[in-house]
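Q:
My hope is that you can spare some time for a protein that puzzles me. I hope you can help me see how the letters and the tokens relate. Thank you; the sequence and its tokens follow:
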Amino acid sequence: MNGQKLNKYWLELTDKANTPYTVGAPAEFLSLRAIERREKARIPIDESDLPVNPEYLHEIKGAGLKIHTVSKWLNAVAVIADADAIKAAEHLKFVKKVHYLGPHLKFRNPANRPAKQRKSLSSYPTPGGNENPMGYATLQNGLLNIPGLYHTGHRGHNIWIAVMDGGFTNVDTIPLFDSIALQGRLYAGWDFVERDHGLFEAAGHGTSVLSVMASNLPGFFVGTAPDATYFLLKTEDTGGEFPIEEVNWVAGAEWADSVGVDIINASLGYTQFNDTSLGHRYWELDGKTAIASKGAVYAVAKGMIVCNSAGNEGDGAWKHIGAPADASGLIAVGATDNDGLKAGFSSFGPTADGRVKPDLVAPGETVVVAGNTGLDLGVSSGTSLASPILAGAFAALWSAVPDKTAQEVIQAVFNSADQNQNPDNQRGYGMPDMIGAWLELEHFNVDGIPYSFDQFNRTLKVLAIPGQASVSDHFEIYDLKGNLQEIEKISWNAHAVSTLQIRLSSTYLPGLHVLRICNGQTCRQQLISFGN
């Protein structure tokens, strides 16, 4: 490149003609899990799924340009080039448009370090007890009615979540992440900034974001989806704000889609850049203009749930959401305080074309998060935390109804939100109720009694559902021979979803028993299992 100044450019290509890939052989560019997601949702594999024509990439390199990132959805390539090389690229017959993305700057963060050996805890923090199994996360999780799912065993099992951020410092050593790491549910995906696998570095922001979903020390700090599987992706250059990060956002979403991820969380947003001439104007926030927003529309179309922070400009000069929060179908997440009221800093809508934004809200003010080392906890605020709290809540819900599609789950969550009949541009459709969404999706039989049994603490947890339960007199437990094992008076709210916790006094052998919940002369019963 002859020692000239290097810049980054975005080359939009004309077509995918003569590509060696075909929609009839998707296994060449999509995982089986990604294909199955499309099949379940009846989403056809189309030309946007095909990789960029490799011959075009070969010619771009031959013209003296270095490829930084390739987007199959947008059929475009981000390149590093000097003035002579970019002029040559403009004359390539398959290049439709060239956009300037800013200067090519070296990454400013410390050099990569290898992953460290994880050490198991020698002692655990004092549990909070059965009343608060989620520990310091009880309040923030409770606002979304997550504990009901947690108590019934739905914590994100077999749901894959991609987390796109600027770095995940010390996630490889912090004990809060022992469960996902030691059980093979934590993957260092890819660093789209430095083009390597160095993820456990550069920024603690991603660590905080991950912690409100994935942490799992019962009674101390538990996230909204401790049983999910996580893929960490670094798309954000923490050395500054540049348009290339929007390109990285799209590339990260494509990576997540191709491996079979179910949910994406991106606590990222773009309005202004270091080069102010490249910043977005409000009229551009129509969901169709910004690179990241265009990519987000595709991500949603592929059958994933995409949560993105709305932004923290609500009390600033900008005030509005950023890109890609403006994208249609993407769930832009605003922040509330611990009373469910809109946080002052939370960005608001509408989009430039008049759509309601944010879409939903979640706790984002004075949120408890992981610290930088050990068992340290901290308190932080931002829509950057509201988004992952909600993303984890989606995972917990989806794990309860794995046969449902992303759009079915999303619709139920919107229906459960507290402003679903009267959305506005401050809180969107409002704060969701994950149990309410679950009830809509599951269509529980009136005789069904959702429950879980904690064998270690000998505690039976029963989910009371409005319309099924009234203020009950007592419960009874029988063995399969009809012998009464236990009887105890209980009461619960007949008009709200609640979780009844029953500490059992007798010794039960593992196996099936009969639970009867009685109100007056009327009893409902169901087989339940204690242990294995």
In short: The radius of gyration is 25 Å. The domain at 138-441 is CATH 3.40.50.200 (Rossmann fold).
